[in-house]
Amino acid sequence: MIKNRPPLFPLSSGLFAFLLLCLNASTPPRLYSAPDDLLMGSVVKSEKWKMDRARNLEVFYGAVSFKNPLYDLKTDYAVYDRKARIWTLRGSVYCLRRFLDGSSLELTCDNGKYLESAAQAELYRGAAPIKMRHLDPDGKLLTGRCDRINGDNARGSMDFLGNFYLQTERTEIFSDNGFYTDTDHSFLIYNSAPASPRSAPPSAPVAIGAREGRDFAMTGEKMKFFKDTGDIKLYNNVAGWIKASTEPVAAGFSAAPR
Questions:
Q1: DSSP string, the chain
Q2: How far is Cα 205 from Cα 190, in angstroms, rounded to an integer?
Q3: What domain count does the chain have?
Q4: Fewer CB within 10 Å, N- or C-terminus of the chain?
Q5: How many of the other CB atoms lie within 10 Å of CB of 5?
Q6: 186 with 180: CB under 8 angstroms?
Q7: Is 212 within a domain?
Q8: What is the CATH number of the domain that holds 108?
Q9: Who contacts 115 (Cβ-Cβ below 8 Å, separation ≥6)?
Q10: Are 144 and 164 in contact (CB under 8 A)?
């Protein structure tokens, strides 16, 4: 067991910057601080730790965990390449991030990688997809899943690649991919292009659910989902239906011009 080992903290700040990268895109800047500040008063544990000086690696084996008032992180295995400045996490990766406004975000995946120099993260599914669960201060729940996440701290963005799915209390969205930007707190939802010109035409993203007493199903070549309001904007070849309503477009939905 490794507990409050002082030399670990400066080396490990990049690992938890990795978590910031995964989580800060959904959070105003005032709600988080620098990684080194977050590590103050932290407890880091593992069943075994080894410093491989020949390869300049710091390796943590078995029940690796990090905990402080804002974070819980768990994984089976973690290694830090000190020369390349790359963190690798493998096996049952779990993170719970608590924000100062009372919101929280949970993230689980099979494995991941964080590149300190580029401030970029890569997360991957295993037998199960990557899963996300965001709870806002008012108790509104947003869940999702996908096969891969690429995060870019400088851009304040995240790419969700492969079998992307989002769910709120009243809406479900199905697509191949999604792109989240902190600029307007929105997800751009889109499907992959055909593998070749002879392939069948690509399917389009679909949003289904209920709003203001009406059931709906909407599709378009692309759509934009605004996390804070739940509004959806659709682009190109828009189609769908709204049950028990004569209005052509339900409140909160708009068809963008081509």
A1: ---S-TTHHHHHHHHHHHHHHHHGGGS-GGG---HHHHTTT-EEE-SEEEEETTTTEEEEEEEEEEE-SSEEEEEEEEEEETTTTEEEEEEEEEEEEE-TTS-EEEEEEEEEEEETTTTEEEEE-SSS-EEEEEE-TT--EEEEEESEEEEETTTTEEEEEEEEEEE-SSEEEEEEEEEEETTTTEEEEEPPPPSSTTSPPPP--EEEEEETTEEEEEE-SEEEEETTT--EEEESS-EEEETT---SS-TTEEEEP-
A2: 6
A3: 1
A4: C
A5: 13
A6: yes
A7: no
A8: 2.60.450
A9: 85, 86, 121, 122
A10: yes
Residue range(s) defining the domain that contains residue 66: 1-121
For residue 186, with 0-12 CB atoms within 10 Å meaning exposed, 13-18 middle and 19 or more buried, which class applies?
Answer: buried
**Phi-psi domain of 237 (left: phi exceeds 0; alpha: psi -120 through 50; beta: other):** left
How far apart CA 219 and CA 210 sit, in angstroms, is: 15
Angle 232-97-88 (CA atoms, 0-180°, nearest 5)?
100
**Alpha-carbon distances of 201 from 25, 98, 189, 191, 210, rounded to whole Å:** 33, 43, 17, 11, 28
- Could you read off the pLDDT of 92-105 as tens digits, one per residue? 999 888 888 888 98
Indicate whether 175 belongs to any domain.
no
Of the candidates 68, 78, 72, 11, which has an alpha carbon nearest to the alpha carbon of residue 38? 68
Three-state SS for 2-46 is CCCCCCHHHHHHHHHHHHHHHHHHHCCHHHCCCHHHHCCCCEEEC
The answer as to whether 180 is a domain residue is no
Q: 41-91 pLDDT, tens per residue?
A: 557 789 999 999 999 998 999 999 878 888 788 999 999 898 999 889 999
